[in-house]
Amino acid sequence: MEKKFIHVLLSILIMLISGMAIPPCKSEVVWSEDFDDGDMEGWTVTQGNFTIVNGYLESVAREKLVGPMGGSDIDLLSCCFTQSKVAVGTWSYDIYFNCTSELPEIAVEFMTLKQTKWRTGMGTTAENQGKTYGIYAGYNYPGTYELYTAPTFPGSQMLKIYSTGPGLTRKEWHHIDVTRNEEGQIRFYVDGKLGIDFVDNQVTESQYFGIMLEYSHKGKTYIDNIVVSDTIDVQPSEDELTKSGSMEFPIKLGIVGIFVAALIIWSIKRKN
Description:
The protein is α+β, with helices and mostly antiparallel strands. The protein contains 3 helices and 17 strands. The strands form 2 sheets. It has a 15-stranded antiparallel sheet that branches. A two-stranded antiparallel sheet has the order 5-6.
């Protein structure tokens, strides 16, 4: 009986320690788009216009949006959507800032319930609030990323902000990964580095995946290699979990500690 008890405790301990390593699961791709076929079949353009050059998508916006109070024109944006019902999983894509100074903008709505324009003037409407999870990327000395819940700019509800610091460079492709689990934990990575770790459940379902690209005198933005799966394909390191304040690792560590303490207490009692 004693040997069986020790064996059970050790087995549980080994499983917990193994789980702390957070092994990657097998990716189950739901849909992907690399634009290599040169067309946008399956996409609906709601604003501006797009072109595909060298196998990646870029904006060639043709409509101008007038600024507030008759001010100068707002930078040109193009928006498009494709059907996507993934609400738990991984959204991966590559982005490129082709500019010589601050800005331009890219936004990806990885979960949204409505096809819309990002800007319909200088604000957003209550009808669209809370229907979207998206990642905004702006090249703004040197790089700012925001997790938001509204589909128009300005006026989006920012949930979390992340600045890449001097690591972000212009005229170079950057890889983005976004994951969301069943508990609403959203994690955002830039070039494999965890930037945002945030729990939110304002949006729990999706109908579309949306893209906003800017085209203006300040520069262009590109997107390519979109892959969407219904599995969590990217995991943070233990060091990143600690820095982000996630409780996942400390909880597991605490459980392991309890089992270790139980083994020690049992051993002492047995000797006595």
